Amino acid sequence: MHKVLLIGAGSICRTHIDAFEGLHGRAKVVGIVARHQESAQKAIDNADLDAKAYTDYKQAIAESGCDIVSVMTPPDTHKEITVYALEHGCHVMVEKPMAPSLQECDEMIEAARRTGNKLEVVAQSRCLTPIYRTKKLMESGIAGKLLYTQINSFWYRGRSYYDLAWRGQWASEGGGCTFTLQNGRCPFLNDKNLCDLFIALGEDKLCDTCTEFPRFINEYGSEREIGLAPSCKTAGELMFSYQKPLTFTVEETDETVSSYNNIDPQLYFKLRQARVTVYNIIRNRAFLIEERCMLYLDFAKKLQKKLDTDRVDLMDYEIQAYAQADYLQDRLKDLKKKYGGKNHTAYENIPHFFDCFAGMEVINPDWYVCLERNSRYFKNCSGAEDYEQELSEFAAYYKEKEYEYEQLMMYYVYRYFLNAVNDSEILLKAKIGVIGYLILKHLDMQCWLENGKTLTFTQQVDLAHLYSRQFEHSYTNFEVYNGYFKTKRRYAWSRLMEYLGTGCPDTQ
Fold first, then answer.
1. Residue that wins the pLDDT comparison between 235 and 31
2. In whole angstroms, what is the distance from residue 327 CA to residue 281 CA?
3. Angle at which helices 457-472 and 475-487 pack, to 10 degrees?
4. Is the pLDDT of residue 259 over 60?
């Protein structure tokens, strides 16, 4: 039986696991190597493998006893790993592209010839029937001498595929299908920070990313809503620096908006009315931001119940009730009495609250920094009392800037709430916003502690940017974690209420 070592724990890793483990006992995965051991272990656990997690491929090759190495790391690492594995007695399969340069490819081939070990490059598309037949036709000479070719690819990868830090970069991939950032700048930006492509050819020639980013567009029948996401740092700066209660601009145009679905008009208009009520709750600065989030979740749960029982017509009662200041005061008092002051619950569960996010597709490697900081914080925290004290101190520190979290919540409500007309998941849309706030607040608090109990505006923007990129710029992440928000107990409505109650200093 061949012993296989997988180097790389990205999205393609599971395909390699299934392929090797599906060889009917002829191969066994004995180890997985990743930059972070947690990623390697997660891949092992998800596939239920009897294997070991490593962070050093040289150590893994030495200890695992492997005779086959499968390389799934960024292309700029392929040559080094492949040559080392070949020279240490292993056959190697390496993901495409083989390497960023012909020179490196030649060195890999030479190492295989010199050692007598096999080198295989993943190139499954060459085996597809259309490709195979085209190659045979070209080789037959039936069309004469080939002078010119043009390839039009209609294989859509999606933005999240290219949002990985190494994709399309000269340093890591030899270029690729995307334009390379030069010193963090698009090569089409001139010295005046203006787009030469836009100037020369116009807006209609821009790619989808440049056209949309950092905008998001939601269409509901004949209505279109457009906004900015904090995944763009400049957008985040604009969002968090605006201190007044946020409002929205509405205008009519002659532009035809295509409807991408058949929305329920009654539900849509009820949700629009409900969203106005949510806006007023989130903008109500008589309450702490945690209190506003508690009321938002409570309101969403009641709307969800009406929808689940097919009583959309009764949503009016809840919409009117939550628009009343006296009702909000009384309802908040009841919620805080039931869910406030349970500090042990938050302390025991918040660390696990982050656990699921460790498995995110990593778009920016700095995400690991956040996760490691969170892990380090709870490892060093001596108990619930310390946690409660530091949470209270951070709340006092941030009290004058609470409007930043208010604007964040307004963004989440604006972007997601009405989408419930498409999937009837009102409560889930509220959870997306509240969880986003809780994640960012705890990341802010941990950064604040590590920086001597100070948090700069730039740090706040950077953390919001990072989470937004991770959660909102990966279709896979967004779909997977929406599923978690609905099903995992740590994200249950009652748990979220307890987390929020911990942040209310007057709940004792």
1. 31
2. 12
3. 90
4. no
